[in-house]
Design brief:
The chain is mainly alpha-helical. Helices cover 61% and strands 7% of the residues. Helix 2 packs across helix 3, helix 8 packs antiparallel against helix 9 and helix 8 packs antiparallel against helix 11.
Length: 288
């Protein structure tokens, strides 16, 4: 895990305040996967969360045994993944009650509420009236999937060649390191949430560099819409595709580092075209 490795490498002292925002910025990802990673470290007794204060390191960073960290999926994580998969398959309605979800998954109410709260923070569900929860729209049909990629092909490759494009070298370097770390861990402990978060953040980063707020706004909306479907696709964890995606992102980053924005635009277009044909997250029957 990259956070644990960083704490060990920097010999971070016990009781240090681990700020989610600073870690997320340093890794070039959103706060959501950082929060999840810190929660996993808390289960191992490495960090501790304090109400309204965030996470604190419990032991000296130099004493962390990174190789011994072995995170297994908890019941809550299994429930989380099941809800996402069932929603994408159309087996859950737009609005579901807590009672119906408890009966469906055999979960306790406190456990279900914790998972739904996590999904709510990620923009996947929100509380409805009474005990209901409403799901956000998703790209869960082949037509909507194709239309989304067609739209992205119109706007994303235009980002690097905008006259307002401005590179943030520090953020680009952090994103590159995050991709290299994922490449090293795809076969071991890289989670589907990490894969999606790094993927989504990469595309939003390019849009933000464009200096055009409408391109960025459109990309953020597309990421919210594809979140459910592509979470499911990443859950299936096609390691070879994940490697290719990370490698293609790194090629685009290299082009930007060299100041070749035209090449970056061409590579980005090719990357999206390839991804559009994969029907990531659809069953074979759904994609036929």
């Amino acid at each position: 895990m990259q956070i644990a490795k960083s704490l060990k490498l920097n010999s971070t002292e016990a009781n240090a305040h681990l700020k989610e925002s600073a870690i997320a910025k340093g890794l070039g990802v959103s706060r959501s996967p950082v929060r999840g990673a810190l929660s996993l470290l808390e289960k191992k007794g490495i960090v501790q969360s304090k109400a309204n204060h965030g996470f604190y390191l419990q032991i000296d960073g130099k004493d962390i045994d990174v190789d011994a960290l072995n995170f297994r999926e908890t019941e809550a994580e299994t429930l989380y993944r099941s809800i996402i998969a069932d929603r994408v398959r159309g087996e859950l309605a737009e609005i579901e009650t807590e009672s119906d979800l408890i009966r469906r998954y055999g979960a306790s109410r406190p456990q279900l509420i914790r998972v739904l709260t996590t999904l709510s923070k990620e923009g996947i569900v929100e509380r409805s009236q009474g005990y209901g929860w409403q799901f956000s729209p998703a790209l869960n049909t082949e037509r909507s999937h194709d239309e989304s990629y067609a739209f992205r092909l119109l706007i994303e490759p235009a980002g690097p060649i905008q006259p307002t494009f401005q590179l943030d070298k520090k953020r680009l370097r952090a994103t590159k390191e995050a991709h290299l770390d994922l490449l090293a861990r795809i076969s071991t402990d890289a989670t589907s949430e990490e894969l999606f978060a790094v993927n989504a953040d990469f595309h939003e980063m390019i849009a933000e560099f464009s200096g055009n707020r409408f391109i960025l706004q459109a990309l953020k909306q597309q990421n919210r819409l594809r979140q459910l479907l592509e979470y499911r696709g990443f859950q299936e964890k096609n390691e070879e595709r994940a490697r290719i995606s990370c490698t293609e992102h790194l090629e685009i980053i290299d082009a930007l580092e060299q100041g070749d924005n035209e090449l970056a635009s061409i590579l980005l277009k090719r990357h999206i075209q390839v991804a559009s044909k994969l029907k990531l997250g659809f069953d074979e029957a759904e994609a036929s």
